[in-house]
Amino acid sequence: MKKFFILLTVTVGATFSAMAQQTVSYERADEIVRLWDNSTAKYSNHETRDEAWRKQNSIWRTSSCELYIFKAALEKNTGAAIVLYPGGGYACLNLSVSVVEWYASQGITVALVKYRLPNYGHYEATLEDAIGAVKYLRTRTDLGINPAKVGVGGSSAGGHLASWVSNAMADGEKPAFAILHYPWINLTKSSTNTEGFVLFQFLGKDYHYQEAVNLSTHNMVTSTTPPTLLLLCDDDSTVSSLSSVAYYKALNNHGVKASMHIYPKGGHSLKQHFDEYRPATIDWLTWLGIVE
């Protein structure tokens, strides 16, 4: 059974009774690491409400960053690790752990990230958490992690974040690989109502068009972007498959190793394709030399 517990953090200079802000944690992981919150990080997402659970697997109104670490199966530890960013349209974080546990069973250590949501335009805090998670996981050599084999992954909005990290980190520090599930890539093409909603959550209502252009990750790709695997379904009515196609084309144009699997049916999910995409993922990581 899933277990949840609540942490209390106090705004600096405030009294406990008047200004305490509740945060929540996911207790199913092997280890929980708290990186920072709005009072201790460089950037803030200016969220002042309590964090809260919705339907027992989604966190809303995040104001702190935590890593939920799932250790690689000891007898299979490959030295590889992946930082996973949950999706949720940048409005919440959907902590589905089936893929997390699968990675761990394959000898790959996982850090599932509770990142601070952009809260209508405060996306600097979101990126700070996403990059901080990669840097932290590289320090965990005590878990058998090879720092040169730490990659990133994410689904939907989490896929956008993983692709953003892939390009925002400095050369020589970028992740070793990226695995993107039906990612939101092109912020200037709101081809579905959902994409328009996510854009509002991410940038707020008063954003400039050029801001959306700059944060569309297919426009960020360079020759040093890490090798990337894209997995999605063609009938996705939440995020257009053309978003992934734009990213793949950019990777290809810059000579980056890339592979894309587009399944004809399945919508905004890969649940129908567990038996196909999971072996394909391991084959791809083996081809890259990340796992043996």
Number of domains: 1
Determine the fraction of residues in helical runs and give it as a percent range: 25-40%
Average pLDDT over all residues: 91
Q: How is the main sheet built?
A: 8 strands, mixed
Which word captures the global form? globular
Total helical elements: 8
N-to-C order of helices and strands = EHEEEEEEEHEHEHEHHEHEH
Unreliable stretches covering 5 or more consecutive residues: 1-18
Structural class: alpha/beta
How many β-strand stretches?
A: 13
- Looking across the biggest beta sheet, what order are the strands in? 3-6-9-7-10-11-12-13
- Give the class-level CATH name: Alpha Beta
The CATH homologous superfamily is named Alpha/Beta hydrolase fold, catalytic domain
* Portion in beta strands: 15-25%
Query: How does CATH name the architecture?
Result: 3-Layer(aba) Sandwich
| Radius of gyration over C-alpha positions, nearest whole angstrom | 18 Å
Task: Report how far apart the termini are.
Answer: 34 Å
Describe the structure.
With 292 residues, this protein is α/β, with parallel strands linked by helices. The protein has a single domain (65-288), classed as Alpha/Beta hydrolase fold, catalytic domain (Rossmann fold), CATH 3.40.50.1820. It is 29% helix and 24% strand. The protein contains 8 helices and 13 strands. The chain has helices at 16-19, 98-105, 123-138, 157-168, 193-203, 209-214, 241-253, 274-288, and strands spanning 4-10, 20-26, 31-37, 52-54, 58-60, 64-70, 81-85, 92-94, 109-114, 150-155, 178-181, 228-233, 258-263. Strands 3-6-9-7-10-11-12-13 form an 8-stranded mixed beta sheet, with helices on both faces. A 3-stranded antiparallel beta sheet has the order 4-5-8, with no helix packed on it. A two-stranded antiparallel sheet has the order 1-2. The longest helix is centred in the middle third of the chain and has 16 residues, at 123-138. The protein is globular, with a radius of gyration of 18 Å. The protein starts with a strand and ends with a helix. Mean pLDDT is 91; it is low at 1-18.
